[in-house]
Write a structure and sequence with these properties.
single chain, 137 residues, mainly beta, 2 domains, five-stranded mixed beta barrel, 8 strands
């Protein structure tokens, strides 16, 4: 991880490699994803870069039937909805992300606490695609 830093650019660089990074406060031990320069808990500037396992559990979710333009361009609409949710990482922090692999025809059957694994999803025009964080059931 020597090539990565506490900048947002490093977060997306790590995603390109299939890694999820964040930071841990050396003073109070608080962990956060994505990484930050200042601890949101104790406000110390003693953060260190860490890599998460990529495992977590579904804490909250919603199914989107009326997507914003970017997601419409990715093929989502009322007949092809997508799910976003909050994932509690095994290491503690929570991340907001797209959730893949759930039965969206019966969203009422989706269970809070479902184990999830980190993945990425590529979006954008051919040749200029970017990878985005996602979790898979």
């Amino acid at each position: 991880m020597a090539d990565l830093s506490l900048t947002s650019k490093s977060f997306f660089t790590a995603l390109e490699d299939g890694r999820l990074i964040g930071s841990r406060c050396k003073k109070c031990g608080y962990t956060v994803a994505p990484q930050r320069l200042i601890c949101p808990k104790c406000h110390a500037d003693q953060m260190e870069l860490i890599e998460f396992s990529g495992r977590g559990k579904l804490a909250a979710y919603t199914v989107i039937y009326v997507p914003p333009t970017e997601m419409q361009q990715a093929g989502y609409d009322g007949k092809n909805p997508y799910c976003v949710g909050i994932v509690t990482l095994d290491e503690g922090p929570r991340v907001n992300t797209q959730i893949l692999g759930l039965d969206l025809t019966h969203p009422e059957q989706i269970q809070i606490g479902t184990p999830l694994s980190m993945t990425t999803i590529a979006r954008g025009p051919e040749g200029a695609q970017k990878k985005y964080l996602a979790f898979q059931a």
